[in-house]
Every structure is written in C-alpha cells, then in structure tokens.
Amino acid sequence: MISVNLKQLRKKHQYTQEEVAEKINVSRQAVAKWEKGESIPDMTSCIELAKLYDVTLDDLVNHQDEIWLGIAPKGKHLFGVAVVGERGQIVIPKRARDLFKIEVGDALVIVGDEERGLAIIPESYTQKFFSEALRMNKLEREESE
C-alpha cells in the first residue's frame, strides 16, 4: 500500500528518487526500497514525505486507490457521485455530512461559477463571512476619514 502511494506521489510531482531523497534527507536507495516494498520508511520520514507531497499521513500510509485518481491533497475530498432527482434534489454522502457536520434542517447556500461549477456552503459560514466583510469595510472607511 505505502509503496504504491510513494511511487504514485513521486511521479505525480515529477520528482526523481534522488530528488525525493535529497528533500527528506535519506539515501536514494532507501527511497527505491520503499517504492519496491522491500522496506518501509520510519515515522520521521513518513512525516517528511507527507509534508513534501501535501497529503495527510493517514493517506500516505493507508490510501487504497480503486479508481486510480491518486491521493488528494490535504483537505481535498472526493465523496462520490450524487444523482439529481426529478425535483432537483441530491443526497449528500454520509461521509461528507459527517466531516462538515451537516445536520437535518441545516440551510445550505448554493453558489455557481459557469466555468468551475457549483459549490455548497453552510449558511452559517456565509453569515460569518459577510459579517466579517462588512466589519472590515467599516474599519477601512473609518481609517480613511
């Protein structure tokens, strides 16, 4: 598992084994052995590798890629596919609801960008965002007076 992840991440970032070794202060041979599954990196090396590739330590060690998308950067998730019903409804996958603490009855704001697609944002976050934006605008006006 980790051997496949290490090789995929190195290739995705277009590093040679030598470059990875230099960046985390190990030998090229150590990197080669990790990628072949002949040995595994110690905890310190795993932490450095996760930082280098901007992935979680858990994904670096445990990620199993059934559909060959690779490991997502830290904080990025693929939850699956939601099918749009007749009235436009979708079901947000449980893992997403749990991670983002979305409860029954929560209000969600739907925003869109014609080039990038749709985004779903909890209403409570948008309220905080606009309150902060208004506060900053007020401070800027006061400072310019």
Q: In terms of per-residue confidence, which ranges show pLDDT below 50 for 5 or more consecutive residues?
A: none
What's the arrangement of strands in the largest beta sheet?
Answer: 1-2
Strand count, sense and barrel status of the largest sheet are:
2 strands, antiparallel
Looking at the structure, what is the overall shape? extended
Helix content: 40-55%
CATH topology of the largest domain: 434 Repressor (Amino-terminal Domain)
Strand % is 5-15%
CATH superfamily of the largest domain: lambda repressor-like DNA-binding domains
Number of domains: 2
Q: How many strand units? A: 2
Tally of separate helices:
7
Q: In CATH's first tier, which class of the largest domain applies?
A: Mainly Alpha
Amino-to-carboxy terminus distance: 61 Å
Instruction: Compute the CA-based radius of gyration.
Output: 22 Å
Q: Write the CATH architecture name of the largest domain.
A: Orthogonal Bundle
Mean pLDDT across every amino acid position: 87
Structural class computed from helices and strand pairing: mainly alpha
Please trace the helix and strand order, writing H or E for each element.
HHHHHHEEH
